[in-house]
Amino acid sequence: MRATIADGRVWASAVVTAPPEQVFALLANPHRHHEFDGSGSVQSTISGPSSLRLGDTFGVRMKIGLPYRITNHVVELDPDRRIAWCHWAKAIWRYELEPVPEGTRVTETFDYGVSRFPKGIARLKFPQVNAKSIRDTLRRLQDIFGAPAE
User: What's the sign of the alpha-carbon dihedral 18, 141, 3, 62?
Assistant: First the structure.
């Protein structure tokens, strides 16, 4: 699986053998984000509903070196097709779901071009770090839901 870095975004796709509704239910439940997070930084959810809606916020315990807390805001939501959130820096984490014969194509995107600090994010090599995290997240989703036989 290959991640692409271009135009202020990092993205990759993978197919899972589950319908979009099942995948969306997992993505929209912030209390389960640690189950599929490939970065290893999501520790647990400290606040938020069990199913996100547009405009909702949710708090998460994180750890990148040192532990910290972050509040995310849901900025895009199309049930069973797309969900996205951002925090104070305004970079967006987006998941898009497309039904395919084998199940669902999941595309994860880190859109840092819309953030408050796109040049800083690029200088700190976050796009390259996020490329690996996105691939690892998609592999975890395949572990959870299954992957089509090759």
Answer: positive
Residue type, 132: K
Q: Collect the ranges in the chain with pLDDT lower than 70.
A: none
Distance in angstroms (rounded) separating the CA atoms of residues 143 and 137: 10
What integer pLDDT is reported at residue 69 of this predicted model? 92
Which pair of structure tokens corresponds to residue 123? 């200088």
Q: What counts of helices (H) and strands (E) characterise the chain? A: 4, 8
DSSP state of 116: S
As a whole number of angstroms, the distance between CA 21 and CA 106 comes to 12
Structure tokens belonging to residue 86: 């951002």
pTM over 0.70: yes
Residue with tokens 């999941």: 106
